Structures are given as C-alpha cells and as structure tokens.
Amino acid sequence: MNEVNKSMVYEFVFLGISRSWAMQLFLLVFSFMFYVAIVLGNFLIMFTVIFDPHLHSPMYLLLSNLSLIDLCFSSVSVPKMIYDLFCEHKTISFLGCLMQIFFIHNFGGTELMLLLSMGFDRYVAICKPLHYLTIMNPRMCIFLIVGSWIIGLLHALTQLAFVVNLPFCGPNEIDSFYCDLPRLIRLACADTYKLELMVAGNSGFICIGTFFLLIISYIYILFIVKKRSSNGLSKALSTLSAHMTVVVLFFGPCIFVYVWPFPTMPVDKFLFILDFIVTPVLNPSIYTFRNKEMKVAMKRLITQLGSSRKNL
Questions:
Q1: Looking only at Cα atoms, what is the longest distance across the chain?
Q2: Is 42 helix (H, G, I), strand (E, B) or coil?
Q3: What contacts 112, CB < 8 A, 6 or more positions away?
Q4: How confident is the model at residue 266 (pLDDT cuts 50, 70, 90)?
C-alpha cells in the first residue's frame, strides 16, 4: 500500500506561457514558422555536409553535429508547445515529463560541450594554423564529437537521478510550457531544499564554466589576431562577435534558471523560448549560411538534385 501511495500524480498540467488568446495566437504563428525554419535549415546543413566531400573537414563535421543537436533539442519541446497552444487543458504524463527532462538535458549538455569543441577548433585554426591538420586530425574530431555526446548523456542521467524517485502526491501544475526541472522539484511531497542546491550546482557549474571558457577563448583569439595583424582584427571580430551572440543567447536562459535565486519568475519561460526556438535558427545562419564555402556547396547540392530529377 505504501508503494502505491508513494506517487499519486500520473500527469502534470502545464499552465503555458500566457493565458491571453492574442499572445497565444502570436506564439502559435511565431513558433510554427520558426520550427519549420529550424527543421529545413538544419536538415539542409546536415545533408550538405554529408553528401559534399569538400566539406568533410573537422569544422564542418562539428557544424553538422551542432545542426543535429539543435534540431533534436528544439523538437523535444516545441512540437508539444505548438500542440498545447490549440488545447485548453495542457497535460503531460509523468513518464513523458521525465523523458522530456532527460532529453532536454541530454541535448543541452551535448550542445554545451560541442560549442566548447568548436571554440577549440577555431583556436587551433587561428592561433596554430600550421599545425591545424595535425591537431584536428580525424581521431581528434571523432573524440570531440563522441565525448560531447557522452558528457551530455551523463549530465542528463545525473539530472534525472535527482527526480526519478521523488514522491509526487499533488499539486500537479507546472507554471511553464515544458517540464522545467526546478519547478518540478518544488512539486514533490518532500523537503527538496538540498536537492535544489544540488541541481543548481550541477547545471549552474556546467553552464557558467563552459560560458566563461568560451568567452575567454574568443578574447584570447582576438588578442592573438591583433598581435599578428591589425588588418585581420576587424574580420575576426565580426566573425567571433556573431558566435559570442549565439553563445550568450544560449547560455543566458540556462544560467538564469539554474543560478538565479528566484527561478520561479515568469520571465524564465520567455527566456527559454530563445533556447528552444530562436537559437536553433540563429546557429545555421551565423555559423553556416554566412560561410562562402558552405553556400557554394549548397548550390552544388541543389544543382545535382535538380539534374538528377530531370534524368528521372
């Protein structure tokens, strides 16, 4: 009997982002358009890198993995959010909530490590150009990619371990549009103060540590470029500033939710829209579509597809 009463909650109710119909309609159109752009843009990048042998280099392999992660990360919550905007009663099963938490932290943790790997790749390319092919050899590239996925998986399992055995006996309303770990923990029928500190320490340390490592690496790269030639500084600054914008947009909401002392503020829901919807659109445009070699490869792929359809 004690086992049956241990967890009485079988589903959670999302309160959503806003109860205003005008805001919900805007979010529906906004989310749908951006999600279509996320799917098309990131699939185009992955297909281009896979089928064009000219792009089989460490930088583009890392970029294609970033596109895959962005697509997966966004798909964990955005389709559910779009569906819920049609529904008055927004629910998710207990197992579905745990799975959403797992995949959000899996893909999110993997993206953190992959952004760090890309920062290392840019450091080697700019600061040690003569040794780039030696350092960023295929073995190193595979190591960085596989290592990022493994660390993301371990991070997700750690986060899931915090909540999988918690007793939930009501209430079951989550003031968000996805299963937010800090908010979910507060619904447990137990003293969760120490657990909240552990979650904040785990995710907060990873987010802040990775964020500052990236910022420091970009600053160091700019310093090296300026020291070598002042003419190349403006170009490097233009490229890295765009990268830093994406980094700030991705890390900002994560740091706010897991480090800010009042994580139940409504603003965090709107901040996470940046992570789930806006950043996965910006990543392809900033990291890839501005790249001349990638543009040429995409045109070549589209031409090949067009000619093959004519032959059929």
A1: 74
A2: helix
A3: 152, 206, 207, 210
A4: low
- Report the pLDDT averaged over residues 75-90: 89
d(CA 180, CA 98): 10
Residue 149 has pLDDT above 90, yes or no: yes
- Which residue matches tokens 């090949």? 304
Reduce the DSSP state of residue 91 to 3 states and report it: strand
> Residue 77: is its pLDDT beyond 60?
yes
- Structure tokens, 158: 């750690």
Residues 6 or more apart in contact with residue 86 via CB below 8 angstroms: 28
Tokens of 291: 């790249």
Burial (CB count within 10 angstroms: exposed 0-12, middle 13-18, buried 19+), residue 160:
middle
Task: Give the total residue count for the chain.
Answer: 312
- d(C-alpha 174, C-alpha 181), whole Å: 10
Instruction: Look at 50 and 238; give whichever has higher pLDDT.
Output: 50
Query: Which range has highest mean pLDDT (7-16, 147-156, 243-252, 295-304)?
Result: 147-156
Q: Which comes out higher in pLDDT, residue 113 or 1?
A: 113
Tokens standing for residue 219: 């600053």
- Spatial distance between the Cα atoms of 116 and 111, rounded to a whole number of angstroms: 8
Q: Quote the pLDDT of residue 231.
A: 65
Contact 24, 185 (CB under 8 A): no
Could you tell me the sign of the dihedral formed by the alpha carbons of 72, 78, 79, 81, in that order?
positive
